[in-house]
Amino acid sequence: MIHKSLSLATKVSLLLGIVLSLWLSVSAQNATASSDNLSQAEIDRIVNTLTAKEAQFRNALNVYSFKRDAMLQTLGMGGQITGEYHRVSTFTFDDQGNRYEKISFFPMPSYGETKINKFPTVETYREQIDGKYWFPTYSYADEELIFDNGEPLHIRMKVRYTDFAPARADVKVIEVDGSELPNQQVKPSPAKPKP
């Protein structure tokens, strides 16, 4: 349950963070869904293999930058849009796995304060990136949530992940004579005074 004092933007950001993390468990859930004919040992092997791959994909994602286009809409009677949260960002990671977000589009959300303490069922699609990693590229939800007080809230969510690109490189500094400098801070040469 999300604490009631959080702003709507914070709650929506948490929801989008949950969507990003949900793709870690989707494959494992799908593997156990059709396990009628499999032994427990085979089920365990499949889950362990998928879990190891998920960890590999998550680590690989830390060396890629990507763009996320996230939209959350509330819908009224007849499907008309009653509110919208839309945010487009580029994500990069540093060498320690810390995530940095550069927001390129984020208009003021167009709906009032809503107490979001339930989340819709999210379906996530993946595509193979660079011929080896299955990263999430599209997440979607469209569901009417019924709260404890009986109030319904129809939510539609679309999140697209695009423009995956390796985001880091190793750099070697080589002197003019061809020798490598030891691993140390390289200081720029002082600027020449202007005449």
Provide an overview of this structure.
It is a single chain. The longest helix has 22 residues, at 40-61. Helix 2 packs antiparallel against helix 3 (40-61). This protein has a single domain, classed as Green Fluorescent Protein, CATH 2.40.155. It is an alpha+beta fold and 195 residues long. The relative contact order is 0.16. A 6-stranded antiparallel beta sheet has the order 3-2-1-6-5-4, covered by helices on one side. It has 3 helices and 6 strands. The chain has helices at 8-22, 26-33, 40-61; strands at residues 64-75, 81-93, 99-105, 123-129, 133-146, 152-166. The protein is flat and about 75 Å long. Residues 1-33 have low confidence and may be disordered.
Please state the overall shape, judged from the principal axes of the Cα atoms. Answer: flat
Radius of gyration: 23 Å
CATH secondary-structure class: Mainly Beta
Tell me the major beta sheet. Answer: 6 strands, antiparallel
What structural class do helix, strand and pairing data support? alpha+beta
Q: What is the ordering of alpha helices and beta strands? A: HHHEEEEEE
| Low-pLDDT residue spans | 1-33
Number of domains: 1
